[in-house]
């Protein structure tokens, strides 16, 4: 019957089709939808005057947090920005989904952190399937010499012996329930007797970090200490006492307390700094014999010493020098060792050096003598991979261990965690992601001595003297090329520029490019391999890193030459590197994008003000964009380092320099700006109003081009602690670059 009905219907359908074709009139193609209009927030000009100069800020109302009317307007404006960004990026939804699918297996794929041996225990973090946040765990090292990752044995259970060998110390998924759905930890310290865990969690509702102490024997929270606004912690008396620093309402660390665990006595106030420019810090020496209190301000840096065995016995000043010097004190065999870059006899130095002084020194002030020289340590060489960008120290809690842990980063290699044995000179790769298999290798224990050919599941041991041509690193040099150049800046100074590209996808002379920059606080530019950038590299993009002045790429002088009144050097260095990429035809002249995070956002935004036609697009992540008002009238707390970096508005020379490089104060009128994506968060040091003000003013001043949108993307979550949000944000940024640069 079914076949018969089909045969009967076909002539009817054919006849209907003929009738339709006779009456059909082709429709005119629909015009593409008009681009959405960007939001226009209200303008309420406020006048300012300083050092004889006057100016107006029409968007100053956005930073008036105590003005309820202004904040209601701000809420409406933020909602408009959110809808505008969604409308502009609507046509990239499929692309974003595809990018997320690419990136998800690569972003933060570790199932377990490298186990860290401290005393009798192995400490590590691992993520359970289906959980957002990790667990902090430990297991006895003596019972687990064959321990490899969290898979053998699975979840801490030894199927051979039938015994549970893992102790769960802290479940951050449960902590997130205590703190409004977030599990953002800033500090975490296990006591030297391994009984207690002190840690601070971010309280989103109150915008501070809350201190908790957990008894690891019972898994319960201790009744004390429990404190709010905690910025530093350190153990004393072999775990019987905890010292902690709290901040004032402006988030300045200003009080130091001592709490005796198991006691009903109130916590003792050891130190209170009433001067508003003094900040306190606390740490213990590696052997837990002493505690050091750092008091740093805009005038000086001081270090006080406390006997950990008797923390209530007082503190002694052991070191004082100029402001902004790096000062770390350690103890070994009745000597104090000071690692610092403080000036020597009034002359600044471009390096760190080591001093020492007997603990029982009777002199006041204390005499410090030159410590030991590097050659006395009989240093051995690690057969490093090519293009190493940084070698970073690991936690290394066990003072008496002969093994030290390091992390090695490179633009063409996923981060590698290695252990170096100081006794036999042997290096072991403990963890490194293998992108060829889209997974991470985590290894430890006697398995590390197995055959080196078993690369997919075993760690690798090698010595500096006999490594030969063996390449134990999971580097990607076969697929991605890394080139390094010295680019002349405007004044002839050579600026390091690192270029990364796919050996098989790069387009000669026609490649799009992304130029990273930071140049602040003397911090080395982060040039480590970033998994999310693989999607751009595999599509023929060039990734470049400009190590401009102000960063830490070439010592302390390099930093000083790019801060305060010299801040414009950073901007001009970045522009010189951008021009180099175009002039050498590394990047097509119409396809260069900039990228900056935090202070790097200031760098890129300022460079755009100087040369808006040099860039086709830019991404500014939680950027610092309004230094004039932020430094002059800080709403969120600033540190002495912030003023030393960007300048003191009260100083007329600094003020003029700030006004010259400030992105918010130098937007070009009627100029065609690149497409810009500004991402900000309500949990950032630089208020979201900075991004909102800058975006509003750029749209008002610059020439409008719908193909070059200026977008503001806001998040209420802490992206760094959420792998899903990391992937989603990276996919959106990549889609934005492809949409605006490649079109």
TrEMBL record:
Residues 23-47 are annotated as: Disordered. GO terms for biological process: proteolysis. The keyword Hydrolase applies. Residues 44-342 form the Peptidase S9A N-terminal domain. The keyword Protease applies. Pfam families: Peptidase_S9 (PF00326), Peptidase_S9_N (PF02897). Residues 531-699 form the Peptidase S9 prolyl oligopeptidase catalytic domain. Its EC number is 3.4.21.-. GO terms for molecular function: aminopeptidase activity; serine-type endopeptidase activity. Keywords: Aminopeptidase, Hydrolase, Protease, Serine protease. InterPro entries: AB_hydrolase_fold, Pept_S9A_N, Peptidase_S9_cat, Peptidase_S9A, Serine_Peptidase_S9A. Residues 28-40 have a biased composition (Pro residues). Signal peptide: none annotated. It comes from the Eukaryota. Belongs to the peptidase S9A family. Serine peptidase whose precise substrate specificity remains unclear. Does not cleave peptides after a arginine or lysine residue. Regulates trans-Golgi network morphology and sorting by regulating the membrane binding of the AP-1 complex. May play a role in the regulation of synaptic vesicle exocytosis. This is Prolyl endopeptidase. It comes from Sesamum calycinum.
């Amino acid at each position: 019957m079914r076949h018969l009905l089909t045969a009967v219907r076909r002539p009817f359908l054919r006849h209907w089709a003929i009738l339709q074709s006779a009456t059909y009139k082709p429709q005119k193609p629909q015009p593409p939808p008009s681009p959405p209009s960007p939001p226009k927030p209200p303008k309420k000009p406020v006048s300012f005057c300083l050092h004889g100069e006057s100016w107006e800020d029409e968007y100053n109302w956005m930073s008036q947090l105590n003005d309820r009317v202004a904040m209601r307007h701000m809420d409406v404006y933020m909602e408009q920005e959110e809808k505008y960004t969604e409308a502009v990026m609507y046509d990239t939804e499929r692309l974003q989904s595809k990018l997320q699918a690419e990136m998800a297996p690569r972003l933060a794929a570790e199932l377990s952190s490298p186990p860290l041996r401290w005393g009798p225990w192995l400490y590590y973090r691992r993520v359970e399937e289906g959980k957002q946040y990790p667990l902090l765990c430990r297991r006895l090292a003596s019972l687990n010499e064959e321990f490899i990752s969290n898979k053998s044995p699975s979840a801490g259970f030894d199927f051979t012996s039938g015994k549970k060998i893992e102790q769960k110390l802290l479940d951050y998924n449960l902590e997130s329930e205590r703190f409004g759905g977030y599990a953002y930890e800033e500090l975490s310290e296990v006591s030297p007797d391994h009984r207690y865990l002190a840690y601070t969690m971010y309280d989103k509702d109150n915008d501070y970090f809350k201190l908790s102490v957990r008894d690891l024997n019972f898994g319960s929270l201790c009744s004390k200490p429990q404190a709010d606004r905690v910025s530093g912690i350190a153990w004393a008396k072999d775990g019987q006492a905890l010292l902690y620093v709290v901040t004032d309402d402006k988030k300045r660390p200003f009080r130091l307390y001592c709490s005796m665990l198991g006691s009903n006595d109130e916590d003792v106030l050891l130190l209170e700094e009433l001067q508003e420019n003094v900040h306190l810090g606390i740490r213990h020496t590696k052997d837990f014999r002493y505690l050091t209190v750092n008091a740093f301000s805009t005038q000086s840096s001081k270090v006080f010493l406390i006997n950990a065995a008797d923390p209530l016995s007082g503190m002694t000043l052991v070191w004082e020098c100029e402001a902004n010097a790096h000062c770390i004190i350690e103890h070994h065999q009745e000597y104090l060792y000071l690692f610092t870059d403080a000036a020597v006899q009034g002359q600044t130095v471009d390096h760190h050096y080591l001093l020492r002084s007997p603990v029982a020194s009777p002199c006041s002030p204390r005499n410090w003598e030159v410590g030991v020289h590097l050659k006395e340590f009989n240093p051995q060489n690690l057969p490093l991979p090519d293009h190493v960008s940084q070698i970073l120290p690991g936690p290394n809690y066990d003072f008496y261990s002969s093994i030290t842990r390091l992390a090695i980063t490179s633009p063409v290699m996923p981060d590698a965690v290695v252990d170096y044995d100081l006794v036999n000179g042997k290096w072991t790769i403990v963890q490194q992601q293998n992108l060829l298999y889209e997974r991470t290798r985590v290894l430890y224990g006697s398995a590390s001595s197995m055959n080196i050919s078993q690369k997919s599941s075993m760690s690798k041991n090698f010595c500096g003297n006999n490594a030969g041509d063996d390449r134990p690193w999971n580097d990607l040099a076969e697929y991605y090329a890394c080139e390094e150049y010295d680019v002349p800046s405007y004044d002839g100074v050579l600026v390091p520029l690192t270029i990364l590209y796919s050996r098989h996808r790069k387009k000669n002379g026609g490649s799009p490019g992304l130029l990273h920059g930071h140049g602040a606080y003397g911090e080395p530019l982060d040039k480590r391999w970033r998994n999310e950038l693989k999607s751009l590299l595999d599509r023929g993009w060039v990734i470049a890193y400009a190590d401009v002045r102000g960063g830490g790429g070439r010592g302390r002088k390099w930093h000083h030459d790019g801060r305060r009144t010299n801040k414009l050097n950073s901007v001009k260095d970045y522009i010189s590197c951008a021009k180099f990429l175009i002039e050498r035809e590394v990047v097509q002249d119409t396809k260069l994008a900039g990228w900056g995070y935090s202070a790097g956002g200031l760098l890129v935004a300022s460079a755009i003000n100087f040369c808006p036609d040099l860039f086709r697009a830019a991404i500014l992540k939680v950027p610092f964009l309004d230094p004039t008002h932020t430094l002059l009238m800080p709403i969120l707390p600033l540190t002495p380092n912030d003023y030393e970096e960007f300048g003191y508005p009260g100083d007329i020379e600094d003020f003029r320099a700030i006004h010259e490089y400030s992105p918010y104060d130098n937007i070009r009128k009627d100029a065609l700006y690149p497409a810009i994506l500004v991402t900000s968060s309500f949990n950032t040091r630089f208020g979201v109003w900075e991004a909102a003000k800058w975006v509003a003013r750029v749209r008002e001043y610059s020439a409008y081009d719908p193909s070059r949108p200026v977008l503001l993307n806001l998040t209420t979550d802490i992206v760094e602690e959420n792998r899903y949000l990391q992937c989603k944000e990276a996919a959106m940024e990549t889609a934005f670059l492809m949409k605006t640069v490649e079109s």
